[in-house]
Amino acid sequence: MRVIPIRGATTVAASCDEPSGEVPKLDLPLVRRDFLKGSGVLMGTLALGSPLLALAPSRAWALELKTLTTAEGEAVLKMGRTLFPHKRLPDAVYALLAKDMDAAASGDAKTAQMLRDGVAALDKAVGGSFARASDARRLAAVKAIEGGPFFAAVRGKCITSLYDNDMAYKVFGYPGSAWEKGGYITRGFQDLKWLPEPDAEASPKPYLG
Amino acid sequence: MARIEFNDGSAVVIIGSGAGGGTLANELCQKGVKVVVLEAGAMQSSASFINDEWKSFSQLAWLDPRTTSGSWRVAKDFSGLPAWICKTVGGSTTHWAGASLRFQAHEFKARTTYGDIAGTSLMDWPVTLQDMEPWYGKAEDKMGVTRTNGIPGLPGNNNFKVMHAGAKRLGYKEVHTGRMAINSQPRDGRGRCMQLGFCFQGCKSGAKWSTLYTELPKAEATGNLDLRPESQVVRVEHDDAGKASAVVYRDKTGAEQRQRARVVCVAGNSIETPRLLLLSASSKFPDGLANSSGQVGRNYMRHMTGSVYAAFKQPVHMYRGTTMAGIIQDEARHDTKRGFAGGYEMETLSLGLPFMAAFLNPGDWGGEFAWWMDHYTNLAGMWLVGEDMPRPGNRITLNKDVKDKYGNPVPNVHFDDHENDVAMRNHAFAQGEKVYKAAGAIKTFRTPPYPSTHNLGSCRMGASAKDSVCNAFGQTHDVSNLFISDGSQFTTGGAENPTLTIVALAIRQADHIAARMGRREL
Known about the structure:
By secondary structure, chain A is mainly α.
């Protein structure tokens, strides 16, 4: 499970009935300065009505990059969306891909170089910024590098980054772990009604004690 | 737990604790035989199993480096992962789906029945179905196989309902929730299936039979078992007379240990078992221990496999409940009018979201692929498993260029489909699609074979020492006190999931070994 650490404002608990009317000072972390410690940052907002709002502490999310620049992170994020286009998946999930590629780059200089070169090649292919290019131009650029090591590294990472996290589970309707809920024997394992029921010989009744 | 001294050469030493090794250990212990089981993997339990596909994979799977070659797609998509099998106490019985089918009579006589098919090494087994029937009966009772021994079939889940509806509309007759070693009601001190949906990740309720929590504890209770987890065997040694004398292994700390043995039984599954014999080459056995036939590692089979997934307009939620309790058996017959020899079973299958992304179509990407993931809750799936042809060139060899952490050459798995396999797979894909279309599918997908979960035949049994490694009891032709005790023994693969046959052979082998030990022939 991957969760993006969400930076939100922390407020000092203050009562509302201050007789002086003084506005309490909010103890905000030095967010901007902290961000500048890293090499880049990706930010976004979950859509109103997103099923993920229940999972997230706030609508806004931010991801600090340790090796990739913001532009490179955005390019990787958009490459993920090009490789595996899901309207229902918010940028927050594709940012996990950028996070994982950033971690790989932080751990190995060759990987970092391959990512840099790969993003540069994508930028060149669209004649500007890959992250800002249209869907169609991004697709053409990615198709053109299909089969190369940068393509393979990013596509391969998508499999776990995009599909093995709480947010993706929620979006695609996969509940994940079941044993702690008692499995599905009383929670709809055979609740499908739009096809005929099998006969008892083919499918005997469950034993419920 | 019994403690058998390293220098005590009076025990049977079994390598591997899975369907073969675990069953053999218990059967021997029950007869009063002292047994050491050396298991490479660690001890897990229903409590430590994880309902998370990738985390569980890291916990249970055999992840020591392996290499692949040949034209099979696994060599391209998963070049370092030829098989999805286990390194854990209980072996692949922790991970298996529970399907427990007997071979059909003609499948023991594959060469006689199918004829001399070019490019294969087809051979008849040195046993018949009639020989095996009493042992199949014992195995079904031991494992608690549904639809045998008065045990009711499992209730069908949504994935089965879709298969059943389509199959019946298509005209298939043998459609039911299968013969599964999963308790449909409490039995043998274990509860009944709670339809958890994570069968492949180790059964957290214990309803599914696994040697981990059946055979091994029962063996331990006799006082005759010395089970050593995290003990990876690297060599089997023999004496000047050519008899197996000791087993060398690396313990948990990596230190080398030597356990003397009266009898050695190798049950490391069909990649590690031949690898071990090849690693145990000596001046007396220059081509590998017990390899005068040259067949150690050869004739490796992985079953014709593939999957069909289908998308429907309405939700299925196929992940709810048993992964594989559903079967169509009509195509398991031998009927060359279909264009191939041998037959195949069609069994329900489900993958979770993470594994669907990894295995639906390895290497794929783009809008078409994303469409399938978008429709995850509306998918149904089946696995096609059929008889693949043994070929001398499909084999396990030592890869001298790649070494494992102990400095030993890793196994290379070479595989090329035979045209019979391809014809069978194409037929099975088409039939699977028809089943789902009959149930109302809007789209179907042909998924290629996964890293092999059925691994067979690489130390096959046969009547002659010229073309087989062991005899009808798994005793190697060359070394009288060395036995093959896992699916490596299979002469041919049949259409059926192998575990029931492995367990039946192990029960039979235990009887044989104990009787011969009693007569001081071993």
